[in-house]
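# nightly structure sweep
# worker-07 picked up a monomer target from the shared queue
# config: single-sequence mode, recycle default, output format = structure tokens
# input follows
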Amino acid sequence: MIGKLTGTLLEKNPPEVLVDCHGVGYEVQVPMSTFYNLPHLGEKVSLLTHFIVREDAQLLYGFATAPERQTFRALIKITGVGPRMALSLLSGLSIDELAQAVALQEVGRLVKVPGIGKKTAERLLLELKGKLGDAVVSGAATQVKSDAQSDILQALLALGYNDKEAAVGLKALPADVGVSDGIKLAIKALTK
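# output follows
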């Protein structure tokens, strides 16, 4: 219903802002990524919004960019993930970091966000795979070039290597390596 607000920024109380649009003040919840990029009080602000009507409340969420709003909408479609958790995820991780975590199936990166447990992180990774859109996932695609490399990365993480070590192991591999050979070569490179 309300897709965009443009007006004067009256208050900033994280994660909420108050935007005056021709005499009507809208309370808008924003992720910290948007909050940090807001103008000074009294200046003009424009936010893309997502409006939620519940039995007990009408809530308005604001975003600086279309990919942020798109990601928020994808997150709240997941069972057990409400708007507050979606804002927390967008505040704790950039869209590119979230897309990369989904592409690489990194549970550890998601559980670092306050309010996200292991089961919720696993559900997020499972349900978001392939749903964040090409524009959002483009950053992650450059990190993992193939399904084989993704499988190799997951194997290294399961064996106890951290994200940095696993990335170093992946860099040491030829581009067309198979999964089993890649795991062996990566472990060899990491144990030297």
